Amino acid sequence: MKCPYCSGENCVDEYIIKLYISSIKRFISRKNTPFEGAPSVGEVGNCKKTGDKIWYCPHCNTLIKSFNSEKIIIKCSNCNKEITLPATNRTVC
Ligand SMILES: [Zn+2]
Ligand SMILES: [Zn+2]
Fold first, then answer.
1. Alpha carbon of 44 to ligand 1 centroid (Å)
2. Is 9 within the bounds of a domain?
3. CA 61 centroid distance within chain
4. Ramachandran region of residue 89, left (φ > 0), alpha (ψ -120 to 50) or beta?
5. Residue 82 alpha carbon to ligand 1 centre in Å
6. Ligand 1 center–CA 35 separation, angstroms
7. What single string gives the DSSP state of each residue in 21-89?
């Protein structure tokens, strides 16, 4: 899959994407989730050239650039659907 930063094919390990997809499927099959309908974005690696974090959107199955946000629910820069940020990206007040 193409890296959103350098367009290289080797920045993200396909195996990590597969792991993420299987964990998201478990998430969706669970009912009492805190953020209904919005699965958390996948942190699937870092660009080998820029070192930036690469995210994976479960809605459009695309690699997207990461960005900082104070909100927990963000919109995918590609498909505009809601995804939640992983806990490590949240700003603690
Ligand atoms: Zn890259
Ligand atoms: Zn998307």
1. 12
2. no
3. 9
4. alpha
5. 24
6. 30
7. HHHHHHHHH-S--SSTT-PBPEEEEE-TTT--EEEEETTTTEEEE----SSSEEE-TTT--EEEPPGGG
Ligand nearest to the backbone CA of 50: 1
Angstrom distance (rounded) from CA 16 to CA 92: 27
What's the pTM value of the predicted model, to 2 decimals? 0.83
Q: Is 2 inside any structural domain?
A: no
Residue 40 lies in a domain: yes
pLDDT digits (tens, 9 = 90+) for 1-58: 999 999 999 999 999 999 999 988 876 666 665 556 688 899 999 999 999 999 999 9
For residue 71, give its domain range.
Answer: 14-89
Asked if the structure places residue 3 within a domain, the reply is: no
Residue linked to tokens 């998201």 = 24
Domain total for the chain?
1
Alpha-carbon distance of 25 to 39, in angstroms, equals 9
